[in-house]
Every structure is written in C-alpha cells, then in structure tokens.
Here is the input.
Amino acid sequence: MPRASELRKGHVVEISGTLYRVLHVDVRSPSSRGAQTLYKVRFNQLPHGGKREETYTGDDVVTSVALERRQVSLLYREGNVYTFMDQEDYSQYSVEEQIISEQLAFLSDGLGGINAMLVDDQIIGLELPTTIVLEIVECIPGMQAASATGRTKPAKCINGYQLQVPEYIKEGEKVRINTETGKFISRD
Here is the structure.
C-alpha cells in the first residue's frame, strides 16, 4: 500500500469501497516548525466520474488497486455499448457509454494509442493519447488576411466533435487537438 507522498497522477486507489483515479496532487509545506507536509489530492471517481478531494499527511497510507493497463482499439458500437479489442491477445472488452462519456468525443475509427484501465477484467476507464489528429469537415470560410489575428471560428470534425479553430483553417484540413482540454493545438 502506497503512502500519500507516493501518489502520482493516474494512480488508482480505493476509498470507502469506491475506486478513484488521482487527477492532481498539490504539495503544501507549512512554514511553522514541526508541521507536516500536506498532500491535497483531487480524485475522479471510476467509472462514473464524480469528483473528490482529500488532504493527507506524507505518512498516511492509501489502499491501492490492482489496475491493469492494456492497449486496445475500438472494434464497434452496438447501442450504448462499445467493444474494444486487446492489441496483444485479441480478447474483447465491452463497456457502457456512460463509463467512457468524457472520451467519446475523441474516439474515431483507426485511433491508436488507447489504453484501457482494467480491474478484474472490466474496463473502468480509457486513457487516450494526449493529442489526436482529426479532419475538419465543416467550417465557415475565413478571411484571407486572418493569419496574423487571434480570432477563431467554430468548426466540426469528421467524428462530429466541434471546437474553435483559427480563421485560417479550411474544410478538409487536418488539425491536432489536445484530448485533455479539447482545444486546437496546430495544423497537422
């Protein structure tokens, strides 16, 4: 069992019978003598996505979970159930839409680098690559001299995801998107 001082982003722990993934660890060192370092940890509940914050001292022990990460690819969708295939042993894992609802906007056919987080052979969440490339299929035409301005316009990607892009982006271009923030990074 790890101590609170050993927690890092991405670790999965169990608190009161519920699984949580570490989103952020804020370390605070009090200035008074004899005070202990405090670790304020933000968690995301798995698989349903509730938030929780806890404050620990460095010696507090948390219950870790036997989490397995497997590289998978999206096979198909049937109703509100998505099926993924393990890239190594070709086993299949099904997961309901509500469990992966935050990542659905970025899933597309042929997307590589998806890691499934498994507990007892059940998907409790997905880890997507930090950046993905999508094609713009719909946007309003921009001005020719707009490259020097910071103005943006709405655009729709091939998988239906909508975001703000700079005015110089045209339909048919591929753009790089940050999956954590959902924002435009650059042309591809």
